[in-house]
Task: inverse folding
DNA sequence: CTAACACCGACTGTCTGAGTCGGGATTCAG
DNA sequence: CTGAATCCCGACTCAGACAGTCGGTGTTAG
């Protein structure tokens, strides 16, 4: 399980744009240098972001990119989808394509994938660029959830004999 | 973002074992045929599961595999870790390796990855084989969470101009 | 002794992710 | 009007991982 560098870099760029959100566009070259990202590469990423309507570009001298909407209205799920496509790519995840699962009748795993998908897109969809840029890495996610998550984590750690971290 | 087939098949095998949880071991050949999985392949997967202490094997004629612990005590996160390694593989996710992030100071994205990781391992760690096998795809996850997740999903769908499903 | 099973290392093919390259189109400054 | 700074785009490369396969060995029950 991993997020592609496309998504990662893309988000970094968006965050940079959210930060520099003056009225003048920001050049990719600047972001690339500041964040140590390969310029030619993020160029193509940001193309996807533009086509998805998340950023707007102004060309020519002293041109650059701007967020297309205020950072509070751009969620990470938008970014990831624009860059990586489906959030969870599986033969039979996703809330819609329940039928594409070719396993005979009782595909019990199916529901797990769905929940996984929901979990992911819920978390990503619930986080806006503004929050990330502000450093408050996320929305007011009730601490109870966090606690439960951590507890489950710890429990399963204990259960497994010698589970490696991560 | 995707789960490897290793993890998927591995979970399927585990579920099969949980189902057939009599006292006699179950042969891989049977599972492979019943579930239409490549025999030679899951053989190596199940090796990993054994080495991780999730299943035990008995060799020889009419041998096979058994769950090493009751299905209620095996969570999906155990399985995925045994099969795929780290739950979320990133330069700078994971609750522990915060330092491996080489970005200068303000790696704001960092926290996002951590939350993503928590979200994933929380969901996986909170689901046991028994629940999956029983078809109740998960623990008594409070419906409130599910609702919030779906709402966020819908919201972000609406926000993006024409976001594709999944 | 043989068939059914687990076990193992090595091997292969395909695909995708991560980036590069070279050029074109646009705009602004001097 | 020339040149520099941008965005824009398609084509290309290259390495590594993933998904399997293969051939053979060890072990046990009937």
Result:
């Amino acid at each position: 399980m991993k997020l592609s560098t496309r998504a990662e870099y893309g988000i970094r760029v968006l965050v940079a744009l959210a930060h520099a959100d003056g009225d003048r566009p920001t050049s990719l070259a600047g972001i690339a240098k500041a964040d140590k990202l390969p310029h030619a590469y993020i160029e193509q990423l940001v193309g996807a972001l533009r086509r998805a309507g998340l950023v707007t570009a102004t060309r020519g001298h002293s041109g650059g990119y701007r967020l297309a909407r205020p950072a509070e209205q751009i969620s990470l799920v938008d970014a990831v989808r624009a860059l990586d496509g489906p959030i969870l790519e599986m033969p039979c995840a996703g809330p819609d394509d329940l039928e594409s699962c070719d396993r005979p009748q009782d595909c019990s795993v199916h529901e797990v994938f769905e929940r996984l998908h929901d979990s992911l897109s819920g978390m990503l969809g619930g986080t806006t660029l503004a929050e990330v840029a502000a450093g408050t890495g996320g929305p007011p996610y009730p601490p109870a959830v966090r606690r439960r998550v951590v507890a489950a984590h710890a429990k399963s750690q204990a259960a497994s004999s010698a589970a490696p971290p991560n």
About this structure: Residues 4-6, 38, 40-41, 44, 58-63 of chain A lie near DNA strand C (CB under 10 Å from a C1'). The first helix of chain A runs from residue 5 to 19. Chain A touches chain B through 78 residues (CB under 8 Å). Residues 32 and 38 of chain A are 6 Å apart (CA to CA).
